[in-house]
Amino acid sequence: MWVRGPSRISEADATRFRERRKVLGLGPLVVHDNYLINLASPNPVLRTRSVQAFHQEIVRALALGADFLVAHPGCSREGGAEAAVSAIAQGLKQAARNLKLEGLQILLENTAGQGTSMGSRFEELRAVLDAASDLPLGVCIDTAHTFAAGWDIRTAGGLEKTLQAIDRTVGLDRVRVVHVNDSKTHLGSRVDRHEHIGKGKIGLEAFGRIVNHPFLAGRAFILETPIDKLGDDRRNVAALWKLMGVSIPVTGGRDGMKPRRKKTSKKSARKNVSRAKAKLKKRQSKKRRSKTRGK
Ligand SMILES: [Zn+2]
Question: 283 alpha carbon to ligand 1 midpoint, in Å?
Fold first, then answer.
């Protein structure tokens, strides 16, 4: 929509992805929608584009065999909250029209409540769930957003109160994914700035209670913490595992990159080249041999 380029995933890529996931036995697959999508927009052009873009998000999520598609509810702008709830619900329905959602659930994410963004109040999320009750909808709770929206999850009592409020409104059974992020901003700031686990205003102790809370057991925990330094993502994941009583190595390979090779001297580099050449020669002669044998 706003970004040029192919928005469809080719059938070959999708099949390869699904097969690889099966081999690796990877758990729930969660896709996040484009941040520019605003189903709540009172501007008809932006809204139409948003519906089209969200339709494409669903198509891609289905192609990949995703379990959940996380969506930000959107910003009401000058339109007001009530109109926004109905616009979001209608937008979701329009985007999902003529598509079989099969195992895919759309999850509305709670927000920090920045500007006119919808979903910082759990009641607003509930209103959308009710207004689009024919769709498979659920909720994604972001810890940083929850905290910035004014819920003090730093203490045991505060966490209890928050989880009870979530249960009373959307229902804990509809919370399928938790975005686990520390917050750079203070309680009730309504500003959405993620921080490394334990380095922000929520703090490590609180995350120990969150990831081990029985009310949140079985949910997919996803980190959206910043990557300021190479390996920050691994360190944040390791921090969460540690809080759950599991230790995992943080080192070994660079994230998403080939393992760093040892620096080679010019001399040994030359040696490597000649070794590689010799290998290639050997392979070629082998090929030639097998070809002649095949004749
Ligand atoms: Zn999030």
Answer: 51
Which runs of consecutive H residues, i.e. helices, occur in 132-265? 143-148, 156-169, 204-211, 232-243
The alpha carbon of 179 and the centre of ligand 1 are apart by a number of angstroms equal to 5
Residue labelled with tokens 């948003």: 50
Q: How far apart are the CA of 72 and the centre of ligand 1, in A? A: 9
Alpha carbon of 96 to ligand 1 centroid (Å): 22
Which among 141, 114, 143 is positioned nearest to 201, based on CA atoms? Answer: 143
11-243, CATH topology level: TIM Barrel (3.20.20)
Dihedral angle computed from the Cα positions of residues 166, 210, 138 and 26, in that order, rounded to the nearest 10 degrees: -170
Q: What confidence category does residue 291 fall into, taking pLDDT thresholds of 50, 70 and 90?
A: very low
pLDDT digits (tens, 9 = 90+) for 57-93: 999 999 999 999 999 999 998 888 999 999 999 999 9
Sheet holding 137-142, edge to edge: 30-32, 68-71, 105-109, 137-142, 175-180, 220-223
**Number of C-alpha atoms within 13 angstroms, CB side, residue 43?**
9
CA–CA distance, 85 with 124 (Å, rounded to integer): 7
Nearest-angstrom CA–CA distance, 239 and 248 = 9
The answer to whether 76 and 84 are in contact (CB under 8 A) is yes
Query: pTM of the entire structure?
Result: 0.83
Hey, where are the domains in the chain?
Answer: 11-243, 266-295
∠ at Cα 15 (101, 8), nearest 5°?
A: 65
Q: Give me ligand 1 centre to Cα 78, in Å.
A: 24
Secondary structure (3-state) at 56: helix
Residue type, 264: T
